[in-house]
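Take a record:
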Amino acid sequence: MNCVNLEKKIGYKFKKKNLLLESITHKSYGNENGKPDNERLEFLGDSIIGLIVAKYLYTLFPDHDEGDLSKLKNQIVSSKSFCKIAKKLDLGSFMLLGRGELKSGGRKRESNLAGLFEAIVGAVYLDSGPRATEIFLNKFLLNQDFSKIIDEDYKSILQIISQKQFGSVPKYQIDKEVGRPHDKKFYVSVFINDIKQSSAIGKSKKIAQNNCAMKTLKKLKNL
């Protein structure tokens, strides 16, 4: 296995090459050759990714509640997401597999690819610590267009676009509440850098804010 080529692929040079080797060793290969496999690193990597993504989302979306943040995190920290990255980097070609696993198409198996990415993240963490791991994930996981995975959550999409285009997050203002407690309407406005972008109405504050964000995105021509 050519460590140099793999390190070039992932943009990270290991100080401890044994960690890199362990991260790409599937259980089937480990059993056949008496080598440590990547399952422990996979476990560690999964936990590290979850922590770093949670911190990233907590910072990026200061006005989102726990439910919204969990929804986003669950879509980002997923086997599907990890597998996509592994395929893009062709990490499967570096995986060490046992004979049976290799014959059965293990190099392209999504669970293997997702686990491989997690194991490499775990190895980076043990090799260089949390900051290096965060930089690593910024390159491959946290640099994606989150608007593509947020299904009609216009408020989140606007949050991302506003930070990219204007360097600040949108601020929402409740202009007024109209109606009885069981049948209220909320009037909301959104501001970016203290400039009013749009106003909207909704049956709840959350719906009104989302409607407001949708109108602003159309205004900014991102929808």
The chain has two domains: 3-144, 154-219.
